[in-house]
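#lab-general

N.A. 3:47 PM
ok so I finally got the sequence cleaned up, no stray characters, all 147 residues accounted for. can someone with queue access submit it? mine expired

B.Y. 3:52 PM
send it over

N.A. 3:53 PM
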Amino acid sequence: MGLGITLMILLIVKDSAKTVLTRILDGIEPEKIDAMAASAASVSGVLKVNDVKARWFGHEVLADISITVNSNLSVKDAHQIAKNVIHRLQHDIDHLSTVQVHVDPVEEQGESFHHRESFHGYHGQDHDHGHNHHHHRVVRRHSRIHP
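B.Y. 4:20 PM
back already:
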């Protein structure tokens, strides 16, 4: 009997320790990432969810999402879709505080178009035109949106 209770306590401690360690390291449950992707994909105008990154920050979740939209949309229309994604996520995802939504056109969707090599025909050669780094990541930053 005592051995069974000890094993139960060890299993509970193991699960709790895993959760605490994940949170300490700012990790997040894969199910929450999947839920964010599904929520963003459900928004009208989103053709694809390319990437979802999120982490716990204290008792809040911070997220960075990349979506693909129709290339023929105006900046205003694409921005509205990004705002709609944020709104949907904040209704669907518990503890979500800050969401950054990056909008890609269909022809240049996904992470490969945001790496250093994709700019200026870069093929490994060093070049300098007035700046030392390439920080070409365009991200729309939004705080909590209320209807």
